[in-house]
Amino acid sequence: MDYALIIDKYYKDFPELRDILVRHSRAVADKALAIADAHPELLLDRNFIVEAAMVHDIGIVKTDAPDIKCFGTEPYIRHGVLGAEIMRAEGFPRHARVCERHTGAGLSLKEITEQNLPLPHADLLPETLEEKVICYADKFFSKTRLNREKTLEQAERSVAKHGDEGLARFKEMEKLFE
Predict the structure, then answer these.
(1) What is the model's pLDDT at position 77?
(2) What pTM, to 2 d.p., does this model score?
(3) N or C: more exposed end of the chain, with fewer CB within 10 A?
(4) What is the pLDDT of residues 10-61, one digit of tens each?
């Protein structure tokens, strides 16, 4: 898969947003690859990790988040499912799963319904090791501070803002990857 071609297809009219997306995604990909290198026993698919990390946030182009140059109409919380739609339309269902399952530390049906989130009523939890490593790596980078990696404690605090269930999932990922 040529992720640059897919990104260019959807971001050709949004150069500032494309730069934010690519810089953030590259940082996530690099951290996920470093984790893969540190854990060869996990037999992670490195090529897939790069591709999926580079498109995990492709759906932000359709959201309304002006602080990161997103001028779409959808709520930002939907960027994962919107990205999944894009990736399925492009013929990449495995990559689509990463898009829809990386928000927070994944989102359970319980969290979606209890918080009345505008998302499909389904578990959107990372299941494969590759889905988990990208979700985990993503928590260390924001799109507003592109040149800085969060500490583990900062990443935990960020995840904890959205509830204990997500923090528990993040800590399980920590055990796998740290």
Answers:
(1) 97
(2) 0.96
(3) C
(4) 999 999 999 999 999 999 999 999 999 999 999 999 999 999 999 999 999 9
CA atoms in the 13 A half-sphere facing the CB of 124: 28
Reference 60, options 47, 40, 74; nearest CA is 74
DSSP string, 89-157: HTT-HHHHHHHHH-SBTBB-HHHHHHTT-SS-SS-B---SHHHHHHHHHHTT--SSSTT-PPPHHHHHH
- Confidence class for position 109, pLDDT limits 50, 70, 90: very high
Instruction: Report pLDDT for 39.
Output: 97
* Gap between the Cα atoms of 136 and 176, Å rounded: 10
User: What mean pLDDT is predicted for residues 101-114?
Assistant: 96
Closest CA to 155 of 171, 133, 139, 138: 139
Q: Read off the amino acid at residue 115.
A: Q
Q: Rounded to an integer, what distance in angstroms lies between the CA atom of residue 70 and that of residue 92?
A: 24
Cβ neighbourhood burial of 59 (10 Å; 0-12, 13-18, 19+): buried
Distances (CA, A) of 63 to 32, 45, 58, 60, 75: 25, 30, 10, 5, 6
Question: What is the distance between the alpha carbons of residues 62 and 64, in angstroms, rounded to a whole number?
Answer: 7
Rg (CA), the chain: 15
- Stretch (H or E) spanning 9: helix 3-11
